[in-house]
Amino acid sequence: MPVPTRLFVEGRFIGYKRSKVKQRTQWALLNIDGVASKEEAVWYQGKYAAYVYKALTKKGKEKMTKRVIWGKVCRPHGNKGVVRARFKRNLPSQAMVGTPLHKSISCLGVPSSSPLLSAESWVLSGWDLPNG
Amino acid sequence: MDGGGGPAGVSATGKGATKRQWYPTEHEAAPPKARRRYTQRALRPSITPGTVLILLAGKHKGRRVVFLKQLQPSGMLLVTGPFRVNGVPARRVHPRLVIATSTKVDLGGVALDVFTDEYFRAVKPDAKKKKKKRSQEDFFEVADEEEKKEFKPEYYENNKKLDAQIVPKLDAEMKGYLKSTFTLKSGDRPHLMKF
């Protein structure tokens, strides 16, 4: 039986890469817990990020209503440890901190040069959503 | 017939025609590009035989296991719990799905020749079974059979033999360590941790 373990670090989606009036939704900015500087953020470069959320109904062959949008941490953003990430499908703006439905982003310790983990195998292995 | 099929644009002038309207630019077909084939996969220096690794994905994620050797040419790592200690059998693991710790176990002279890539290759279900015509009774039976995954009996034996060689080399502290699982708690910062 898999022992419940947490092997990901939580983070928050604080917004898209943007200028004053225009936002580039293909780039998400993530604030990873405990990362306070550009140098620390470099460790996360290349690691997988996952936005896990619940849907109301199961679609088709899904085994549960938890869904994942996979992404990769690309590079640091600024000096304070914020990080840029690209997701397979751009993150929905609902996921942003400050909105009522926001959820944590999970930053996995697994580098994205590894074989892609299937969402189901990850989510089904007794791993709970970070925010419950 | 006459000189076979020529390239498009050749005027069919019949007997002994040597002149062509169009000549290909290359004399011969270009050789197919040589594909990079790995015979030896590199391994990061922090992983040496006997290193304790933390598995990051799969059924045993969070478990601490002992690295035995790297299998070639796949480059996968052969690891074991050992099974008797923490329930991880001799298994292949992708090198990128693992954290190498600085803890090492002295393996010295453990026999690992049985374990190769071929040994771990999944046994494909019998092709004949699928094509078999199903009668009414068969229809219900076949579903049950395919559910249980069975391993070859050698798997169990080889695991036991491997454990018998490795477990005596572990002291109580090491066994306790391998039994424990790695997990992040709130406030933990893996990027600052020394593994």
Automatic annotation (TrEMBL), chain A:
The answer to keyword Ribonucleoprotein applying to this record is yes
Which PROSITE patterns does this UniProt record tie to the protein? RIBOSOMAL_L35AE (PS01105)
Query: Can you provide one Gene Ontology molecular function annotated for this UniProt record?
Result: structural constituent of ribosome
A Pfam family of the record is: Ribosomal_L35Ae
Q: GO annotations under biological process? A: translation
Give an example GO cellular component term for this record: ribonucleoprotein complex
Q: Does the keyword Transcription regulation apply?
A: no
Leader sequence residues: none
**Which Gene3D superfamilies would you find in this protein's record?**
translation elongation factor selb, chain A, domain 4 (2.40.10.190)
Q: What InterPro entries does UniProt report for this protein, alphabetically?
A: Ribosomal_eL33 (IPR001780), Ribosomal_eL33_CS (IPR018266), Ribosomal_eL33_sf (IPR038661), Transl_B-barrel_sf (IPR009000)
Q: Which SUPFAM superfamilies match?
A: Translation proteins
Q: Supply the alphabetized keyword list.
A: Ribonucleoprotein, Ribosomal protein
Q: Which family does it belong to?
A: Belongs to the eukaryotic ribosomal protein eL33 family.
Protein name according to UniProt: 60S ribosomal protein L35a
What is the species listed in this Swiss-Prot or TrEMBL entry? Ostreobium quekettii
Q: What is the lineage of its organism?
A: Eukaryota, Viridiplantae, Chlorophyta, core chlorophytes, Ulvophyceae
Automatic annotation (TrEMBL), chain B:
- An example Gene Ontology CC term for this record: cytosolic large ribosomal subunit
- List, alphabetically, the InterPro entries matched: 60S_ribosomal_eL6, Rib_uL2_dom2, Ribosomal_eL6_KOW, Translation_prot_SH3-like_sf
List every stretch annotated Disordered.
1-38
Instruction: Name the Gene Ontology molecular function terms of this record.
Output: RNA binding; structural constituent of ribosome
Query: Is Ribosomal protein one of the keywords UniProt gives this record?
Result: yes
GO biological process entries: cytoplasmic translation; ribosomal large subunit assembly
UniProt keyword list: Ribonucleoprotein, Ribosomal protein
Q: Which domain of life is it from?
A: Eukaryota
- Protein family according to the UniProt entry: Belongs to the eukaryotic ribosomal protein eL6 family.
Q: What name does this protein carry?
A: 60S ribosomal protein L6
